[in-house]
Amino acid sequence: MQLAPKENQMHWYDKEGNPQHYVPSKNGKLRASTLRDARKHGWMPSVTSVLDILAKPGLDQWKINKAVNAAINLPRYINETDAEYSKRILADSRKESQEASERGTRIHGMLERAFKQEEEPKGDDAAIFNSVKSLLDINCGEQEWKSEVTFSEPKLGYGGMVDLISDEWAIDFKTKEFGADHKQLAYESMAYQLMAYAVTGVEKSYMDTGEASVRRMANIFVSATDPGLTVFHEWSKENFERYWEIFSSSLTLWKNVKQYWPEKHYEGS
What we know:
By secondary structure, the chain is α+β, with helices and mostly antiparallel strands. It has helices at 35-41, 47-51, 57-73, 82-93, 95-115, 124-140, 189-198, 202-209, 240-258; strands spanning 12-13, 22-24, 30-32, 44-45, 146-153, 158-165, 169-176, 216-223, 230-234.
């Protein structure tokens, strides 16, 4: 059973790259895996979990603004306690981000099934998929695409799942509300995430064949308000070394803050 992740829930992967986001609880139901579970099994944090260690002042201010707006506009019930009112304000302030997350999850799932040829998209979904596929054909050429690929890097101590990958490219989809007159869509923090995906398997490829190169990488932005409107943004190779330095530094910081070094489980293996 696939459970929807909670906000700020950490994701974990085992040595083989299998997701380990949930474990059985004492009552038999599934619960979110914790750092304690990861220590016990040697699981590795996901790329996004690692990058959550970085401050996001823009996002934090957006959340504060939403909470303030909810407090101003949400009427208080008669006899409602401060704690009950505060809880309702926070829940209301999170509605927009929750709806966006659910919408993004649905579109990601549709694209995964379409690329795996498990389901033919219809209606607006067909417009989205055809637009994404056209962008890929134009910008990347012929590729053997693999969708929603999970991986792990035991020697480095992280894992993850990439939306779309080939021998030459790593692609991450971003669903946003935008129209044809959109302004900035791509932010550099997105490149840190893609960088961790772009290098996966490179060392093994070099060991197996004597040849390896870091993949090119791009975000594809999918409009949630204008079905079929998509934008392709490739990240410049000139900055790859810096992007990797930022991700690897974040990984080192994460390990020291959490006092957990997953790679030590696999030393000598």
